[in-house]
Amino acid sequence: MAEATLLKPKRESFWRSRAWRRFRRNPLAIVGTLIVLFFMLVAIFAPALTADRMGRNCLRDLGVKRTEAVKVLRNPLSPKFWQATLHPPASCYKIPRKGYSPIPKHPSRKYPLGLSGGGYDILYGLIWGARSAFYVGILVISVALLIGILIGGLTGYLGGWVDNTLMRFTDAVYAFPGLVLVMVAVTIFGRSLTTIMLAIAIVSWPTYARMLRGNILKVKAQDFVDAARALGAGPVRIFFKHVLPNAIGPLIILASLDIGSIVLSVAALSFLGLGPEIGFADWGQMVNFARNWIVGPPGEPLKYWYTWVWPGLAIALFVLGWNLLGDAVRDALDPRS
Amino acid sequence: MLTYAIRRLLQLPIVLFVVSVVIVGLLQFLPPTARAAAYVKSEQQLAHIDEIIKQYNLDAPFYVQYWTWLKNALQGNLGFSRVDKKPVLESIATRLPVSAELVLYAFLPTLLFSVWLGTLAAIYRDRFLDQLIRVLAVVFWSLPTFVLGIALVAVIYGYFKLFGIGRLPPDLIIQLAQQANAGEFRYYTGLLTIDGLLNGRLDVALAALKHLVLPTITLILVLGAQIVRVMRSSMLDELGKDYVRTARAKGLPEKVVYYKHARRNALIPVITLAGLMFAFMLNGVVITETIFNLPGLGQWAAAAAIQLDQPSILGFALFTAFIVALANIAVDMLYALVDPRIRYE
After folding, report:
1. How many CB pairs under 8 A join A and B?
2. Which residues in chain A have their CB less than 8 angstroms from residue B34's CB?
């Protein structure tokens, strides 16, 4: 027994690692984690949280009657609860409307955060907005990572002229203001959530490509790669079995922390009116709904404050949570700072 | 240095060529009739859409189309902006001063202010001042430009009735237009704060300045936060280096160590960021101009994107590429000025 443990190089457990200790002791990291966890819970349980205020189409697609919605969708033992939580129909992402009046309605018992111009239920939009934020963030990061890994992997591993050409290309995309490129894409391919998600992925991969290239260059120079080559492994096997797994870890962690900034870009586009279709639960669009009501009627300049404060606060907090978390993880991983 | 500058400037057409090929290439996803819309100026022309397609070779192979586009572009014909009902180039010319004025008043204060705060945070590392600056920086960095802008409009403009929205008060705009027609007010630069002074119209300059306060504050807070963060970590890097210890060991006063030694070296990454930030200001301008109703390039681009006005958007994208490329060259030049070790052959 004792010999076996001696022979096996002991792997430092995560819970005892220096990085975890640094992270745990950073109060900002705790705040960030709590904010992100809060939004995650809201996003996951959005159907249960909004069971009492769901729109007609959403209920119909779920196959739930309005009278029993609260009972069924808030009961973890019913299959409908799981269906709604794990895979809600697309119609649930639409904010239900109460009337079509362009004038916002003050908070009431039924609508605790009020109705935005056009009768959109602000509370519903906020809760499902959290879900769509994660949806958009995760999807965009995955696509951007895929492109980044492909290009960063090729340039870092192959080097030479491939590296030179692809890196110049990467620099060009990196230097160009992303919003402008996305606007070009929207005018050509039309306005839709898919267009802007793809467009944002296409402008955000260069960071990952650069990061991966740097990591690969470091890993490539290490002895175990030479050892593998000496044992007769081919270049493809070396790349996928030895180089990539050792270079990719930090990249994936750091990329996933970018969800905040991705959501920020999408929100900015939605705010401009270039985002998903009207009525989709999206915080940026909710701020856009409020645009005509920012300054209230004479004498009551802050009359409609609830139309922009809540969605604005939601975006700011969401991004802040991810940024705090991101800073803390970077600090913990990088012992230099 | 001079030859390097000239060589870099000669690369500029290449950058624009690549960007324009990409853009005209993207347009191939649209049918020829949609591409023809770029050159339609009035509804009467819609009946003759085939002639326009012929005239601009819009149904020809890509290289012929690009060549025609390039010939027209070089003659200043970038198409017709539907949003402004003017040729695209004219739109850019009339709107550029508005954006330039905004960036002009936002850029330098952002740099100075955030370099100062970043240095302070690094010097007082882990003490109260540092913690405060760091928290504020991460909060403002996370704050979306449009949320901050709307909050400023609602509270400062709406509630406290301070400053203004738009470029000038409406009555002043009408008055100026009349006087400009009569030749009593001349636009030298297009920047109202400067033209006001040049015409001896202090009221115009002051009104224009008042209307710039809120948008500039928005840009300064959001962009400055990023620079503070980079400046702080770069300064911390420098303070940990050997030459700083040597300087201290020699008995140099702390002030000299901080400001003459460490900060000069810490500025290098900030210059890179400042160049990038210039590009990001063009992003930020789209949103700030929309919120504060300033008739600049950003507002134009936002309106054009909503109305699918592709010639305007493409003109804006080309112009942005031009500015970004120029900013990059300026950054490389600045490197050499700040860091004498860097010399260009």
Report:
1. 132
2. none
B11 touches chain A (CB under 8 A): no
**Is residue B253 packed enough to be buried (19+ CB in 10 Å), middle (13-18) or exposed (0-12)?**
exposed
Question: Quick one: angle between helices B2-27 and B62-74, nearest 10?
Answer: 130
Pairwise CA distance, residues A289 & A310, whole Å: 12
Nearest to A316 by CA among A94, A99, A129: A129
pLDDT at A1: 45
Give helix then strand counts, H and E, for chain B.
15, 2
Mean pLDDT to the nearest integer, A220-248: 87
- Average pLDDT (B294-316) is 88
Domain B88-338 has CATH 2.160.10.10: no
Of A124, A122, A133, A126, residue with least CA distance to A306: A122
pLDDT of residue A12: 66
Torsion of CA A262, A267, A268, A274, to 10 degrees: 110
- Minimal-distance CA residue of chain A relative to B302: A272
pLDDT digits (tens, 9 = 90+) for A183-212: 888 888 888 888 889 989 988 888 898 889
- Report the half-sphere exposure of B21 (CA within 13 A, side-chain side): 6
Cα separation of the two ends of chain A:
40
Q: Determine the distance in angstroms separating the CA of B131 from the nearest CA of chain A, rounded to an integer.
A: 10
Which residues of A are less than 8 Å from B233 in CB distance? 337
Distance between CA atoms of residues A309 and B65, nearest Å: 49
Closest-CA residue of chain B to A184? B313
Distances (CA, A) of B28 to A103, A197, A315, B114: 43, 21, 36, 44
CA dist A107 and A295 (Å) reads 18
pLDDT tens per residue, range A140-169: 999 999 999 998 888 888 878 888 888 877
Crossing angle, helix A193-220 and helix A244-256, to 10 degrees? 140
Q: Residue B318 has which token pair?
A: 């080309």
Q: What is the pTM of this model?
A: 0.88
CB atoms within 10 A of CB A181: 18
The domain segmentation of chain B, as residue ranges, is 2-81, 88-338
Q: How far apart are CA A306 and CA B319, in angstroms?
A: 39
Q: Do the Cβ atoms of A320 and B320 come within 8 Å? A: no
For A165, the token pair is 């050409």
Q: Name which of B15, B310, B320 is nearest A177 (Cβ-Cβ).
A: B320
Q: Go through chain A and tell me how many residues it has.
A: 337
Length of chain B (residues): 345
A159-180 burial string, b = 16+ CB within 10 Å, else e? eeeebeebbeebebbbbbbbbb
B6 CB contacts (<8 Å, ≥6 apart)?
Answer: none
**Residue A56 contacts residue A96 (beta carbons within 8 Å):** yes
